[in-house]
Amino acid sequence: MTDDSSSPGVERADAEAAIRTLLRWAGEDPTREGLLDTPRRVVDAYRDWFSGYAEDPAEYLRRTFEEVAGYDELVVLRDIEFESHCEHHMAPIIGRAHVGYLPTNKVVGISKLARVVEGFARRFQVQEKLTAQIAHCIEDVLKPRGVGVVIEAAHQCMTTRGVHKTGVSMVTSQMLGEFREDARTRAEFLQFVMNTRR
Predict the structure, then answer these.
(1) 127 annotated active-site
(2) What are the tens digits of pLDDT across the range 11-40?
(3) Using one digit for the tens of pLDDT, what is the confidence trace for 106-160?
(4) Nearest Cα to 190, choosing from 180, 198, 81, 54?
């Protein structure tokens, strides 16, 4: 989904035709006035929602800063809001990610951590995989002493269909390095995360 005409192997016209087929399957008439532009709008929306496939989130982490006066304590970015889509039902997943790491001799701009979350979120996902992808990306590129990621999200495949349970959120975490091995480091990170709750 990298340009206005097509994705690899799929022409835009084919994507719009698929939307018209779904509209007919749902019982609608895609030629009626209110739906004439719907296929175009849906394809445009998909280009935005799934722009993560055209990105390499690791690239955001490659520019680092080493002049940190020896700082080697926790770096935590909380409440990174994201929207993703469930790969099982293509329904929205709306949530927040909390990301922390223990730097070695370099740090990364905080906006880059948010961009890593966005890069993976803007793909079809399951929350467990999303959590692990973010953590391993940070570990692989920054080589910190440890990484922690906690994600809280509501899944509309559960709230708007199936069991129809609203007000439910799912929490997943991935701890690597000292976050996994050292209970005190893990507890400090989780305390930062818990303090975000109202």
Answers:
(1) yes
(2) 999 999 999 999 999 999 999 999 999 999
(3) 899 999 999 999 999 999 999 999 999 999 999 999 999 999 999 999 999 888 8
(4) 180
Torsion of Cα atoms, 106 then 109 then 114 then 119, to 10°: -80
Q: Is 89 annotated as catalytic?
A: yes
Q: Which of 55, 83, 157, 188 is catalytic?
A: 157
Contact predicate 122/50, CB 8 Å = yes
Which residue out of 88, 128, 181, 191 is catalytically annotated?
A: 88
137 tagged catalytic: no
Annotated active-site residue in 16, 85, 125, 127: 127
Q: List the catalytic residue out of 28, 55, 83, 89.
A: 89
Contact 101, 90 (CB under 8 A): no
Q: Write the pLDDT tens digit of every residue in 59-76.
A: 999 999 887 788 889 999
